# Entry
Amino acid sequence: MTTALAVLSILAGLLATLIMLVLIMAGGANAKPDDARILKIALLSVLLVGLVGALVAGVLIFRGRSGLAAIIGLIPVGFDLALFIVALVTKF
# Structure
């Protein structure tokens, strides 16, 4: 049961990462050079957190730590939500 929850949390993290990447790319269509640099950093950070979270959670599932893997798999969701709120407040 916890393995299924861990797999679902990994999928939720990857989906949140994909959605955030699309939102950042859509926001950078008419960006100035300074804004484009900030968006590039945001893109790389979202991608890094999403992939590392999924990789670490996958390793934890393989080692039999499904409960911890479910928590780690949801870290990208929280990160993307926090970045979305910051982007709305600061309007970068």
The mean pLDDT is 93. The radius of gyration is 15 Å. Residues 27 and 67 are 36 Å apart (CA to CA).
